[in-house]
Structures are given as structure tokens and as C-alpha cells.
Amino acid sequence: MAEARFSQDQFSCSVCLDLLNDPVTIPCGHSYCMSCITGHWNQEDQKRVYSCPECRQTFRPRPVLKKSTMLAEVVEQLKNTERKPAVLAGPGDVKCDVCPERKNKAVKSCLVCLNSFCQNHLEQHENLFKGKRHDLIDATGRLQEMICHQHEKLLDIYCRTDKQCICMVCMVDEHKSHDTVSTAAERTEKQRQLDETRREFQQQIQEREKKLQELKKAVKTHKVTTNAGH
């Protein structure tokens, strides 16, 4: 008997376009993430008429949603078959902080947990903190440089008074009355200043180039006039 093959598109939610999460099937037969269809129907509560985002069929009263266990198992199997295997860390790679002995290559670093994770431990991290906002960035070996050594918090504030990065605790403590902004805002401002300086330099170069061309033209004209006089 031939083995059934599934693609991710077959089990994707048409609302969030991701793999089904806590899948539910509504009366018309279409399936969605529990949170996606709940959010969609919450917006239709005033009309008391609930529709399918895909085929637009309407229902009244609001259908009761129950998680599709069988569909959830199929989606989980699909995740397992498409899961990328972890790779052992090599020279120059960022190592996973959770691997006990043989360290795998880290793929992401969490700015909340202050750890780097390989593919396998990243999935565990995402399941553990489901629904909570944890800022992930590409794996970096400079994670400790982004942390306040005094308070063990992320250096996400820039003190313009002291010209240094600080954490939230620093801001409400020794930098309380200082001029502070987020590091993202300061980075944007520095980039704007850099772009402006670059434009000024380019304009100066163009003006000097223009004057040089005019000077060359004047010298050439002078030579022609001098030769003609002889």
C-alpha cells in the first residue's frame, strides 16, 4: 500500500497562513486554528451571524468549537517529518546553552531567557513559553555583551547623558533624571545622522569635482588661447 504524503499547505490555516495550531473544524468543513477562528468570530459578535473566512458560509447561532484530536495528531506528525535536525556546533559557531555535553549549533538567541538554542531546544522553548512574548534574534555569541552585568537585564535603553547603554533598572535608579531613549530609537537616530553626513560629503565631493572640471576646462582654454597667440 502506498504511503500517504502530505504537504504543509494542506494543513495550514487560511487566516494566519501557518500550520494549524489547536485545529478545529467548523460546520462547513474548513479547519482553522482555534485562536484564529475565535478571533474572527469575536469580531462578528455584534451581528450575531458567524461566517467562514474561506467559503463565507454563515452560521447562526455561533457554533461550539472543539479541538480536532485527529487533525492535531496529523499536524504534529507533519511537524516532526519537516523538523530540521540539530547540527553539532563547529569552530566559530554559537553553541546551544541547553545541550548538556555535545553542544549543537545554536540557531536563535532569546533576549528574555538570555540563552542561545539549537533547533531542538528552540522548539522546546517555544512550547514552554507559548503565548508569551520572548524576543528571539539570530544566534549571537555576543549575548553577554547585551546584558547589564549589575542587574542581569537586557541593555535596551540608551542614556544620552552618559552616552552608554543601560538596562531598565539602571534607568529608574542611577540614571533616573537623565535623557534616555530606547536603543532602537537611538540606533535609528544615529543612522539618520550618518545618512545626512554621508549626503553632505557626497555633495561636497560633487561640488569639488565640478570645480575641478571647470578648472581643467579653464586651463585647456588658456592653453589654446596662448598657442593661438604664438
From TrEMBL:
Residues 13-56 form the RING-type domain. Residues 181-200 are annotated as: Disordered. The keyword DNA-binding does not apply. This is FinTRIM family, member 56. It comes from Sinocyclocheilus anshuiensis. SUPFAM superfamilies: B-box zinc-binding domain, RING/U-box. InterPro entries: E3_ubiq-ligase_TRIM/RNF, Znf_B-box, Znf_RING, Znf_RING/FYVE/PHD, Znf_RING_CS. PROSITE patterns: ZF_BBOX, ZF_RING_1, ZF_RING_2. The keyword Zinc-finger applies. It comes from the Eukaryota. Residues 143-183 form the B box-type domain. Residues 186-200 have a biased composition (Basic and acidic residues). Pfam families: zf-B_box (PF00643), zf-C3HC4_4 (PF15227). GO terms for molecular function: zinc ion binding. Keywords: Metal-binding, Zinc, Zinc-finger.
